[in-house]
Amino acid sequence: MTISLNLNGKTHDVDAEPGTPLLWVIRDELKMTGTKFGCGVASCGACTVHVDGEPVRSCQTYIEDVGESEITTIEAMSDTEIGAAVQQAWVELDVVQCGYCQSGQIMSAVGLLTENPKPSVEDIDNYMYGNACRCATYQRIRAGVQRASEILEA
């Protein structure tokens, strides 16, 4: 069945069966591979995208459930003030090690800073909980969120 998606500010018509995870439509049909498959059960955060500005796990978000919502992937994050600040902080602090989880980490960090522009360490830890990093760069991720907050405040 053909479904229209509002993805990164553009309408895309895709052919997908009901029950297809949004992740696979983004990656396989639209060839946007920044959103990663990690676990398939919404536990690791590698597949995080924004639906109407809220971070969601795209591996467990079904194509028919997004309707006309605005979907944003990592590919469009640098086009937003908060996304650009987070990416700048990640580069400045050399947050990334292997990089596999980082698109999901960035999407969650943008969600946090959208809700709370000046998060405490506890706020960061609580919000980012559930975003797994195989390389355990959690201290650098936390520092990156704090630095992005500083960039936004300037």
Automatic annotation (TrEMBL):
PROSITE patterns per UniProt: 2FE2S_FER_1, 2FE2S_FER_2
Keywords on record: 2Fe-2S, Iron, Iron-sulfur, Metal-binding, Oxidoreductase
Protein origin, superkingdom: Bacteria
Keyword Metal-binding: yes
Keyword Ribonucleoprotein attributed: no
Pfam families documented for this protein: Fer2, Fer2_2
Gene3D superfamilies: 3.10.20.30, [2Fe-2S]-binding domain (1.10.150.120)
Enzyme class: oxidoreductase
Signal sequence bounds: none
Cross-referenced InterPro entries: 2Fe-2S-bd, 2Fe-2S-bd_dom_sf, 2Fe-2S_ferredoxin-like_sf, 2Fe-2S_ferredoxin-type, 2Fe2S_fd_BS, Beta-grasp_dom_sf, Diverse_Oxidoreductases
Annotated EC: 1.3.99.16
An example molecular function term from Gene Ontology annotations: metal ion binding
Domain 2Fe-2S ferredoxin-type, chain residue ranges per copy: 1-77
Name of protein: Isoquinoline 1-oxidoreductase subunit alpha
Native species: Roseovarius albus
Gene: iorA
